[in-house]
Amino acid sequence: MGNFKVCIVGGGLAGSLLANGLINNGIDTIVFERDEESLKREGYQIRLGDPALTGLASCLTDSQLESIVQRLGRYSGSTKTAPSICNTRFQTILDLSALPTYSKSAAINRVVLRDLLLGPVVTKGKVKFGKQFSHYEIIKNGPGGSESVKVNFKDGSSEHCDILVAADGSGSKINKQIGARNLVDMSSHLAFLSKGNATKARLRQLPPRLLNGPTLTFKNGISLYYALYLPAPQKTGGDGKQDDGFDFDENQASFYWGLNVPRELCPFSDAKDIPNRRQFCLDIVRDWAPEYHVMLSAGASDEDKITMTMLRASTKLPKNWRERLQAQNGNNAEEGHPRVWLIGDAVHAMQPNRQVD
């Protein structure tokens, strides 16, 4: 496409997937990632539904897509399932997989998926690491009225492009500069997230119900999401019997849970002062069935990996939001400009327990 160039700020899931699609269709594209290439991330779980797989297929080559499909988790022999809503006695109230209109999905580790998506872009030399976004400018190129976008970074460097794509997550600076400002902190709740290895010994302790799919539990503003990631069965020769039917690589299997707690249930003015996050979570569900105590205690012997985070949500932008901004701020060329696009969490913040639709 001649000299047409796209800059993507953010090398996460959305940014790296789009980069693959553009590069595979001959469009000059470069990704700017704030983290250093050597940084090792810890990833939680994400679930991919049919629409997400369709999106992947439209951007990736067949071999790239197959590498992702092979890493999708399995539940009782099936890759796709849906959560069950349980009460606090761990009784199933509603199995969402039984609803024909509910989109089923498959689990995969976020970091594994991100590496599979970003890897081909890195191989092509189209990723610059250690680039923290500062701001962008709309540049007028001569009297003819043609425009470009100048992307500025905190290290003083810059890059010119025809289209700037914001894939910089739910804390997006580009979202603020362009004037969308539709991302909001959910100060009403605290979110506790945890993951760990789902060894075969651990699976024998966890409720067997979890082998069928994720569970969701709600009570008085509290919500708990719990899911396993079990990789595809290993290919074994002979007739060797697998213990308890668990035929998978323990190094890849994992559990993940997220507990959202109303802020008023925290006795500390600053939630960072909670001395023992696991015990706090166990106290929140102290009146729930014993199964929940076992579930939240999984991995307690490991180094504590319970993360507390602030959830973010987003409001839907009106179709004419760009026109409104340009009409209100005619002297500010950057606000609402059509050469700046928003994708992924930079415009639609997704909670950790949601799937990609």
TrEMBL record:
Domain of life of the organism encoding this protein: Eukaryota
Gene3D superfamilies (UniProt xref)? FAD/NAD(P)-binding domain (3.50.50.60)
Q: Give the required cofactors.
A: FAD
Question: What keywords appear on the UniProt entry?
Answer: FAD, Flavoprotein, Monooxygenase, Oxidoreductase
- FAD-binding domain spans which residues? 5-38
Q: Which InterPro entries match?
A: FAD-bd (IPR002938), FAD/NAD-bd_sf (IPR036188)
Molecular functions per Gene Ontology: FAD binding; monooxygenase activity
Protein name, entry field: FAD-binding domain-containing protein
Q: Which organism is it from?
A: Gibberella moniliformis (strain M3125 / FGSC 7600)
